[in-house]
Amino acid sequence: NLTARLSRVVKTLKGEARLTEANTQEMLREVRLALLEADVALPVVREFVARVKEKALGEDVAGSLTPGQALVGVVHKELTTLMGGDLGPNATELSLAQQPPAVILMAGLQGSGKTTTTGKLARWLAEGGHVQNGRKTGKKKVLVVSADVYRPAAIEQLKTVAAQAGVDFMPSTADQKPEDIARNALDHARRHHYDVLIVDTAGRLGIDEVLMNEIRALHALLNPIETLFVVDAMLGQDAVNVAKAFNDALPLTGVVLTKLDGDARGGAALSVRQITGKPLKFVGVSEKLAGLEPFHPERMAQRVLGMGDILSLVEEAQRAIDVDEAQKLAAKLKSGDRFDLNDFRSQIAQMKNLGDMGSLLEKLPAQFSQAASQIDGKQANKQVRRMEGILNAMTELERSKPELIKASRKRRIATGAGVQVQEVNRMLAQFEQMQAMMKQMKKGGMAKMMRAMGG
Ligand code: GDP
Ligand code: MG
């Protein structure tokens, strides 16, 4: 991945104060390769690298950073921007603000995940997940209908999905015309005061005119407030052509990137965003109906870069602190050394130095923040200080060999830190959890770990 690739060149360039043509050339080559490895389409990569180069040249290299780290910072920032960071905080929201029913039209190739995503969105809206201007707007009354009259059992599939989602299903049959189905459903939704109507459509295996004409006609008839392009992240490079075809045919309002729980590195996100110019709104992260998440530009940038948490730690750390600690940790992860209590302590120290726990936790990959969210807001800093107290009460040997810490040592440490033994135990348990994650991360990389966590 990119972090690994760059770290090799990074070391050779210490002590230079500016990013220059000469010291960035090799690194930019690595950025290019890393993006291609992540399945970003070639023209998109070219444009991106040119942008990074333009932004990076002449940039000052702050404090103890190497030009390599500074460049990673530029790459990360630019990638986040391109993923939609420039669209503002509300870009991932669905817009439903109109005279109900708000119609959502689903478009995409066969197998991209339209029907599944219809169910996911229906559930999300019915359960009150909808957010407007950053605030939840409450549970919606949702109707779904299938205009897929071609694929055997497509209508039946949506019926099943709707039942699972706990939303109403408008029956349709394979001998109806898609437009008639849509018209009936819209009429029904109006008369029964539905907030939202989601229209699932047919997809073909390739892009063809018949398909495009049909969905254009549906669009004209339904006048949807959202037209979502559903695309399989595993499409990789091919995502570009598919996105282009749908974007040319329809006024898309947003993109749903599915199957991100697989091996896809997320490069398709960048390609699709670049080609359509439309915001990515959601990602699909499992076959199950709960497997839908709002899109986070930053997280996706990190996925493409690989090793997100370390990278953003380095980034956050630029201003405040101890870049070296983060680097050591990153190096340690790569080298295969065991993550011990000393590493745990320096991580905690960094959190404290950074002050803003909230923003730091957000930067961590989802599975970390889940564990970390048990430490809630205001309590966080206090807890960090207590954990540090416990760690400081240990000897160097104990920190590097945590398995030595048995009952009598625990009592001594607890007394030294002025806490109960249970608190020492709790901290050790948290440490072990973190250690297990680090191990996983080293072994299989993020994608594998995300799968494992996602169940
Ligand atoms: P459609 O032809 O566009 O309607 O696609 P479907 O909704 O029928 O999905 C095709 C296949 O992809 C099904 O087996 C789904 O279970 C699967 N699928 C859809 N979304 C996701 C996802 O986010 N993750 C995973 N792992 N599978 C998905
Ligand atoms: Mg379908």
Automatic annotation (TrEMBL):
Subcellular location: Cytoplasm
PROSITE patterns given in the database record: SRP54 (PS00300)
Assembly information from the UniProt record: Part of the signal recognition particle protein translocation system, which is composed of SRP and FtsY. SRP is a ribonucleoprotein composed of Ffh and a 4.5S RNA molecule.
Pfam families for the chain: SRP54 (PF00448), SRP54_N (PF02881), SRP_SPB (PF02978)
Keyword RNA-binding applies: yes
Record field: catalytic activity: GTP + H2O = GDP + phosphate + H(+)
Function per UniProt: Involved in targeting and insertion of nascent membrane proteins into the cytoplasmic membrane. Binds to the hydrophobic signal sequence of the ribosome-nascent chain (RNC) as it emerges from the ribosomes. The SRP-RNC complex is then targeted to the cytoplasmic membrane where it interacts with the SRP receptor FtsY. Interaction with FtsY leads to the transfer of the RNC complex to the Sec translocase for insertion into the membrane, the hydrolysis of GTP by both Ffh and FtsY, and the dissociation of the SRP-FtsY complex into the individual components.
Domains (record comment): Composed of three domains: the N-terminal N domain, which is responsible for interactions with the ribosome, the central G domain, which binds GTP, and the C-terminal M domain, which binds the RNA and the signal sequence of the RNC.
Family that this chain belongs to: Belongs to the GTP-binding SRP family. SRP54 subfamily.
EC number(s) recorded for this UniProt protein: 3.6.5.4
One GO term of the biological process aspect: SRP-dependent cotranslational protein targeting to membrane
Gene Ontology cellular component terms for the protein in this record: signal recognition particle
Name of the molecule in the record: Signal recognition particle protein
NCBIfam families: ffh (TIGR00959)
